[in-house]
Each structure stands twice: as structure tokens, then as C-alpha cells.
Amino acid sequence: MNALGVETAPAKVNLALHVTGRQPDGFHRLESLVVFAEVGDDLTMCEAKADGLKLTGPFAAQITPGQSNLVARAVKAFRARWPEVLPDGLEFTLTKNLPVSAGIGGGSADAAAALRLLARHFGANIELSALSELALDLGADVPACLLSETCRVSGVGQNIEPVRDFPACHLLLVNPLKPIATADIFRRLTSRDNPHLPPLPDPPGPISMLGLWLQGTRNDLQQTAIELLPEIADLVAALSATPGSIIARMSGSGATVFSLYASGALAHQAAHDMREKFPNFWVTAAPVLSG
Fold it and tell me: Are residues 126 and 196 in the same domain?
């Protein structure tokens, strides 16, 4: 089958993540500075007799292709919302390059990639606002992943403010290959009403200024995740000690830990060192996608 389109689902990294409250419906209010890395899953779309999903890639065995998969749910939701625009069947092939339940978007990024493919090829008249509403129904991270550009996110994922003129920087991502369920982290939180994210300078300025700003922020899920998986603390300490590290902390609900650098050379040297120190962990370095 000839591919109709291919889309990358870049890894989402929370440089800062504050939990600022809990709504009556149980959802938590969050404030986060989100960036995306030039590494991710890949999604290919082909026309077929019926909708389907195939899995490949190094982490394919950790997920299922059934109707609970976020790509399958995204296609089903798009078809229900705009039934007249799609062909009878579409087959997707997901190349799973990112670890699962790792705090870097994963399934949300895959769902967003599916929505982008569908809208680009079949939804010429679909407004971005309508697509974003559908994305939010799929999950709190999906609207930000739909844009896949540096942004400040608040509420339950519905408020997205793109950040312009973000300084060029590079990420090192390390994951111990032990999944953590986001629901477990939120269930164990003891503090759910924390201080807000400070205002981000506009423009953010050089990477040194961004680093100073990040020092005044947190990931409010990190300590709870460490209690479940102590290796996270070891990774934060190890990445913090690498030459040129601007800040190191956990992304999202973990267990991926990131370190931020001003140059690709520093990030790749740190990746080399971490592969030697943690040979059984997933380690990758990548630039932050520019907006």
C-alpha cells in the first residue's frame, strides 16, 4: 500500500510542572512550560478496507493495537465527529521509538500525530479550534502535542500559549525503562494546591536567563515519583553533575529525567557518559524543536 502520509510524534518534555489545584470533577489544574524534542515515534497512514493499527519499533511490544490505543481512539473520534470526510478504511503503522509510560507524551503525541495526518489529508475545512477540542477529549496532553511547539500550558490542558523566540537548546533524556502510571502519581500526591508558575520573560532571552527562571520552578510530581521509583533521584543527581547542565529534573509524571544544555556537543557528550554509567537505560540527546 502506498502511504498517504507520515507524521512524527515528538517527545514532550515538561521543563517545569506545577500542580495548582484540584477541580470538583477530580481533574488537577496544572501549569507547565512544555518543549518538544527532535526525537519521537513515527506514524504512517495508508488507505485500507477497514481501520487498523500495526505496531513496530523498539517499544512496540509494550503497547497493544486494540481500541484502547490512543491512535485508534483518535481515528474513531475523528470519524465520529466528521464522518463524511474520511474514506471507509485507514491503516496506521506506529513505529514506537519512545519508551511507554515515561512522562514524555508517548501515546498523547501519537494521538496528536494521527489527528494532524487526518486533518491535513481529509479535513481542509476543519478549524484548529475544533480539532483542539477533540484532542482534549482524548487526554490533557493531546492539545499541546497537537501543536508540538514550545508553549505554556495551564488548566487541565486546554489553555495553551505558544512561547516565541525560545532560545536554541538541547536535551538529554534518560529513562530507566520502568514505567510509572500517571494515575498512581496523582493518587499519592499529598500537596495539590501549590504556588503558580512564575511569569516567563517575554521574550525568554538567552539560555542563561531561561536557566535562572527554571531554578525558580519545580516539578510537583517528582518527589512522589521518587518514592515509587528511587532510580529517578539517582538520575537527577547524575545528570545534574554532567558538564554544562543548566537544569536536570523529571519530565511529566516520569520516569524520564532530562537535562538541558546550551549546545549539542555538551548534550551528546553527556549522553555518551550516561550510556556508560547506565548501560541498560534508554538514553538519547536531541535539539529542542524551534517554534
Answer: no
Burial class (CB in 10 A: 0-12, 13-18, 19+), 196: exposed
Within 11-104, residue ranges assigned H as helices are: 70-81
Cα 37 from Cα 54, distance rounded (Å): 24
Q: Which amino acid is at 43?
A: L
Instruction: Check 41, 96, 110, 141 and give the catalytic one.
Output: 141
Given the residues 12, 96, 110, 220, select the one marked as catalytic.
12
Active site residue 165: no
Its pTM stands at 0.95
Question: pLDDT tens-digit profile of 1-44?
Answer: 688 999 999 999 999 999 999 998 888 999 999 999 999 999 99
Last residue of a domain, one of 162, 195, 220: 162
141 is catalytic: yes
Cell of 29: 489544574
How many other C-beta atoms can be found within 10 angstroms of the C-beta atom of residue 41?
A: 24
